[in-house]
């Protein structure tokens, strides 16, 4: 495959992504796709459409981590880690050295293992009442890129991230901005975020639509919160 991606090549890569974002797709259907084909083609498809979420998360995490004095050897949980695109950037470009990965798809995690970046792997579903296997206050921070889409991770998963991240730690998430409106589950995302801030579980540092596109001509949305 050519490294240059023209319009029609982008459309070709977008076919795989559309299967993962199909309206009404169920969690089981998604896992079937991630386990059986997406894990092979994922990186190529995402790079092919100019996917920026892992870069956004890394950039905003680093900006606020430096401001808050969170060190480069902080223990960071990469949630919905997929094939590990996020951690490769966090480590190689920004110098964060201690990363664990969690994802519901073993095939995606197997790819993430090949990056050689992560220390520990946890194959588990989160959200919708499903919990992470880690103890309270295990991590210095948590990041998530692309975990919020149709049929993917439900809003209550953030309560689990708040639970496993130590007070003072960051939670940084990047998603497609339109999913706030297009995915019914996420109509409740910002109201939940606000409620948890009012309950002093966390504080909002920023919500931002990055100046460059999430992929293709679609906006991204980055959430930065600090656990209280
Ligand atoms: C679009 S990929 C993002 C992967 C990676 N963070 C990136 O940016 O390239 C979404 C990932 O979320 C995982 N996932 C979807 N629903 C999940 C759930 N409920 N619990 C845990 N992982 C889930 C999928 O297995 C998949 O690897």
Automatic annotation (TrEMBL):
Q: What domain of life does the native source organism fall in?
A: Eukaryota
One of its Pfam families is Methyltransf_25
InterPro entries to which the protein is assigned, alphabetical: Methyltransf_25 (IPR041698), SAM-dependent_MTases_sf (IPR029063)
Q: Domain named Methyltransferase: which ranges?
A: 76-169
Q: What is this protein's name?
A: Methyltransferase domain-containing protein
């Amino acid at each position: 495959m050519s490294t240059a991606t023209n319009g029609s090549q982008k459309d070709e890569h977008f076919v795989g992504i559309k299967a993962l974002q199909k309206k009404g797709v169920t969690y089981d259907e998604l896992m079937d796709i991630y386990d059986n084909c997406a894990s092979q083609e994922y990186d190529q498809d995402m790079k092919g459409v100019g996917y920026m979420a892992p870069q956004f998360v890394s950039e905003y995490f680093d900006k606020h981590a430096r401001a808050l004095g969170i060190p480069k050897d902080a223990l960071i949980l990469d949630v919905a880690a997929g094939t590990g695109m996020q951690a490769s950037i966090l480590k190689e470009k920004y110098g964060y050295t201690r990363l664990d990965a969690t994802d519901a798809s073993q095939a995606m995690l197997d790819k993430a293992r090949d990056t050689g970046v992560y220390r520990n792997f946890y194959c588990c579903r989160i959200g919708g009442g499903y919990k992470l296997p880690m103890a309270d206050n295990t991590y210095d921070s948590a990041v998530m890129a692309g975990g919020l889409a149709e049929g993917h991770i439900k809003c209550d998963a953030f309560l689990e991230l708040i639970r496993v991240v130590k007070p003072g730690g960051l939670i940084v998430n990047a998603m497609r901005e339109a999913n706030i409106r297009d995915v019914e589950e996420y109509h409740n995302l910002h109201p939940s975020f606000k409620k948890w801030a009012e309950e002093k579980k966390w504080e909002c540092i920023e919500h931002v639509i990055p100046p460059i596109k999430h992929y293709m001509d679609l906006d991204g949305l980055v959430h930065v919160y600090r656990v209280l």
